[in-house]
Amino acid sequence: MSNGGSCCGGDSVRDAVRKGYGRIAEQGTLSAGTAGAGCCAASSPACCGSSWSPAELASRLGYSPEQLAVLPDGANMGLSCGNPTAIAALTPGQVVLDLGSGGGFDCFLAGPKVGPAGRVIGVDMTPEMISKARRNLAQYRERTGLDNVEFRLGEIEHLPVADNNVDVVISNCVINLSPDKPQVWREIARVLKPGGRVAVSDLALLRPLPEAVRNMVEALVGCVAGAVLIGEYEAMIRAAGFAQIEVAQKPEYVATLARFEDPLYRRIAEALPAGTAPGDYITSIDVTARRAG
Questions:
Q1: Is 3 within the bounds of a domain?
Q2: How many CB atoms lie within 10 A of CB 37?
């Protein structure tokens, strides 16, 4: 098991995450008191541990009020740890792929940027999330006048997308949840056109997590227990055939959650050695890279 190993094996992790995010799609939150619900018995209302409202979290991550105002109702479920559409520098006519698209939050923000000649494809392995995102399409079309977003059911380790078909891949706090992250990056390289770009927001580790935290079921769905060391993260990207790799740490995300005693991060802090804090181990990162060739 790697330093970022989780509480479960590969298939168990995938099933746990699918069940947890299915509940988020149906309820809008993972409520407390879900003990016994498998590996996803999380009390935090969002993937990455925020106890703020989805709008508050999005604002703190740099999403503007104007962007949020045109989103379909319910597309923003507070599952972000960054703002990949901001670092992706999208332009009209591009084909964009969002890994772990959830209710369509970043897809609906990318759509107007690529315009009517572009295309945005969201992929999620949770049927409830895909259903929710597809229900949001009508409101997106009404508010933007665009019909350039679609959602496909599939795993990010086996993307339902043709080879060399995508200009930009984005993802927001999802890759860390995968039990086979190197395979995810190989798939990203496969679907990107030569020279295509990736812009990912995610969580990574500054140093190995104590075993007690890695085994916390809340941390699995909270994008923490499955995170890997930054050096390991970069090595996976490079091995998949990417160049111009840049990883920018965003420590303020975790620091703020810990300071405001978010339920998940409070439990993590309680399991850490005395004198240490979650921000000593965990950081949000923005990753950009370009497929070689």
A1: no
A2: 15
pLDDT digits (tens, 9 = 90+) for 155-194: 999 999 999 999 999 999 899 889 899 999 999 999 999 9
Angle at 183 between CA 181 and CA 187, to 5 degrees: 120
Euclidean distance between CA atoms 199 and 274, whole angstroms: 36
Q: How far apart are CA 45 and CA 23, in angstroms?
A: 10
Question: Cβ distance 181 to 157 under 8 Å?
Answer: no
Q: Kindly report the pTM of this predicted structure.
A: 0.80
Q: Could you tell me if residue 205 is inside a domain?
A: yes
User: What CATH number is attached to the domain comprising 231?
Assistant: 3.40.50.150
Domain boundaries, position 215 = 10-291
Q: How far is CA 287 from CA 45, 141, 201, 283, in A?
A: 25, 30, 6, 12
Give residue 7's pLDDT: 38
Indicate if the alpha-carbon torsion angle 58, 92, 146, 47 is positive or negative.
Answer: negative
Contact present, 148 and 118 (Cβ < 8 Å): yes
- DSSP β-ladder status, 149-153 and 166-172: unpaired
